[in-house]
Amino acid sequence: MASGPLDGIRVLEFTQIIAGPFGCQNLADMGAEVIKVEPPEGEPWRIFGQFMPNESKTFQSLNRGKKSLVLRMGDERAQKIVHDLIPEIDVVVINYRPDVPARLGIDYETLRAIRPDLIYVDNTAFGREGPWAHRPGYDIVVQAVSGLMAGEAKVADDGSPAQITSSAMADYGTGIAIAWGVSAALFHRERTGEGQLIESTLLATALSMQGTQVMSLPPVDVAVRVPMMENIDRMREAGASYGELVGAHQPWAGSIYYRPYGTSDGAVAIGALSRGLRDKVRAAFELDIPDQDDVDLADPAIIAQFAAVVPQVEELVRSKTTAEWMEIFDREGVPGGPVNFAEDMTDDPQVVANGLIIDLNHELSGPQQQVGPILKFSATPLVPEGASPPLGRDTDEFVSLAGYSAEQIAELREAGVIA
Amino acid sequence: MASGPFVGIRILEFTQIIAGPLGCMLLADMGAEVIKVEPVAGEPWRLQVQFIPLESKAFQSLNRGKQSLAMDLTQPQSREAIHRLVADIDVVVINYRPDVAARLGIDYETLKAIKPDLVYVDSTAFGRRGPLAQRPGYDIVIQSFAGLTAAGGRFDENGNPMLPGGGPTADNQTGYAIAWAVSAALFHRERTGRGQLVETSLLANALTVQYGTFMSLPAADTMVRGAMLEKLEAAEESGQSYRDFVEERREMMRRRGVGGVYYRCFNTKNGAIAVGCLSASLREKMRQALDFTDIRDKPDYDPLTPESQAFQRELTAKIEEMMASDNSERWIETLESAGVPVSSIEFVERLDQHEQVLANDYVIDLDHDITGPQTQVAPPIKMSDSPPQAQGAAPPLGRDNDAILASVGYSSDEITAMRDAGAIR
Lengths: 419, 425
Hints:
The complex is a heterodimer of chains A (419) and B (425).
Chain A: E1 10-14, H1 19-29, E2 33-38, H2 44-47, E3 50-52, E4 55-56, H3 57-62, E5 66-70, H4 76-85, E6 91-94, H5 100-103, H6 108-114, E7 119-124, H7 139-146, H8 148-152, H9 169-192, E8 196-201, H10 202-208, H11 211-214, H12 218-221, H13 225-237, H14 242-248, E9 258-262, E10 267-271, H15 275-285, H16 300-318, H17 322-332, E11 336-338, H18 349-353, E12 357-362, E13 366-371, E14 375-377, H19 395-401, H20 406-414
Parallel strand pairs in A: 1-2, 1-6, 2-5, 6-7, 7-8
Antiparallel strand pairs in A: 3-4, 8-14, 9-10, 10-11, 12-13
Helix pairs in contact in A: 1-9, 7-10, 9-10, 15-17
Chain B: E1 10-14, H1 19-29, E2 33-38, H2 44-47, E3 50-52, E4 55-56, H3 57-60, E5 67-70, H4 76-86, E6 91-94, H5 100-103, H6 108-114, E7 119-124, H7 139-145, H8 148-152, E8 154-155, E9 161-162, H9 169-192, E10 196-201, H10 202-208, H11 211-214, H12 218-221, H13 225-237, H14 242-248, E11 263-267, E12 272-276, H15 280-290, H16 306-324, H17 328-337, E13 342-344, H18 355-359, E14 363-368, E15 372-377, E16 381-383, H19 401-407, H20 412-420
Parallel strand pairs in B: 1-2, 1-6, 2-5, 6-7, 7-10
Antiparallel strand pairs in B: 3-4, 8-9, 10-16, 11-12, 12-13, 14-15
């Protein structure tokens, strides 16, 4: 018997790996009935590191308390099932790439026609708009792209960037944001009867977690951020290595499928977590080695073969520019991205296209830019109400609201009680 | 004109630094009117690297769209004003240590008597119960305590462990969790008319972002986790250094601290600790506890002069040497009794046995249909009236196909036909 605040709410989940599953698990923890729709072979995270068929620790840690509904969504009948289910569903959470839902007949417009007050969470890697909208993105890529990785500035002994190992924070943060978005939308529906579309992205979350760094604030930045980034630009032009760049930024600073690499002019990260994507990585690198699914990973010969490939690939990646690799990755469908600094993101076209940067004006220090809200609501858009207040700006108003006269307020201020 | 789902909701915020301010900012972004109650001198984050008096970039990035009410809460008139205000407040968010709210007359019971349907979010560092409940905790302490620092495995040039990069993960996650919690509690209030107490902690959130490693799952753990724990024990018995072990654990890094000797990790004689002092008063406590002097908090201190830098280098070397001269237990006891935020650096795989974790019910037992018993980290939010709760382990693939299809009118023949056709498993 469920006991949380979302008892009686039914969620249909079309997500995989971490962010979406974690978000829906949060909802399940709150008492919602979560129906997870999976392909017949199971979602990729079931298969990644499975210790018995279709069961992995990672999957089990992110999907507790759910129901599993296996549908081959490419089949029209499966789509019909979903349509038949929708009248019973309060919330849909989906994390496919932007063009996929419509192809499967499970986009917001189609489902809303069936259930007008549906709440629909569309979680993507980079947002539905902009040049990166259709790129695949996993946590590691978003870490690289959003500045998180360069912010950590971890550099391997050979000077190559290393990934953040403490947590997949873009994924986890997004998972909480999904739960938060659904909860707020349910509140709104309760008051107005209206459902809505909610959008969240890994990129928005990753930026939100670096709000202070992404923020531009001219009176401060003139002393630190501006000269630092000018210096980095100069170093880039002069051909500085990634290690040197992250050294100048702040200044501080596996396998072949899911990691960052140094390139001839910087660094790229790739994140391939499924068989299909690993095939694409091997194609991109023109590697003639078997996939890990097809071999005995305990076989010493295989271990030696795989180990020998790593330095080869590192050398290969170092032989081309980041732009050249991005072209190759795009062509082959490999999830990848350059390693950026958060400060670079303020005027990045992808960021701007998704409305992730907002302009604010502080009463004392003037104009500034910040990361916008990490969720988009179609019926109740989130609009920050202004910059932060100077200390005590509104003291009088609220002490007054509490029933104090101007004299009393003055006395309290005189006595040092308020300011 | 506000436009989010929480237009008309009024929040009274008693929080500082990152987690609480971020959580309330997210709610402000959703249209809530957030009244931030600050000490008369400003909250600490205003004072952290001010670029003009009482304004810092860090503060501004975490408090947009709010109103500021600067008030000395230790004075009775202030308490009275807050009590009058609370009648018009929907939500209170607070991040003081567990005993402080009652002392200030702003604890849940007191305020609920004024506003019965109040939603009250109490965010602490280590949880309200357990031996560490009263210990001050900042992001770096919690990250180190909760296993994130060890998982990050970063060291500086001198072999010191360092905070994992990418941001203050425990703080950030807690900020999101606060926003989520308020949203869900308001939904509940809308349906039932009832407010409630909501609790969350940095610890709960730091554990939550490590689901897979925190989780124990006997059927799978013999390969990795069990072997790792055995190695850890052997390493400790043989006196292997923290660093050597972490490197053996295959994760390594590097970072430079922002707080000099006050906010960073240190090697000790038998391990490593993290300290997190972000205010002048905490730095003073640390100086007294360790008996050293510093130019850092002197009025004319300029960190960029060669003299200052030379002094800091010397001080850093001295404190590092001091820390390396004795065991973690000694330093933790010394610093903790002086009120300095401090933690040993733990491995997450062990925390499901830690009494602090157990005392706050952060470990739950589940039973998987196929793979049997397991423990996981509990939901990071506790609610007094509608407690979140894991409803079971993960389902085997397709376990519920039939029941779900039947619930929407499919006959067993139809279901079988679909299965035969490969449309379902």
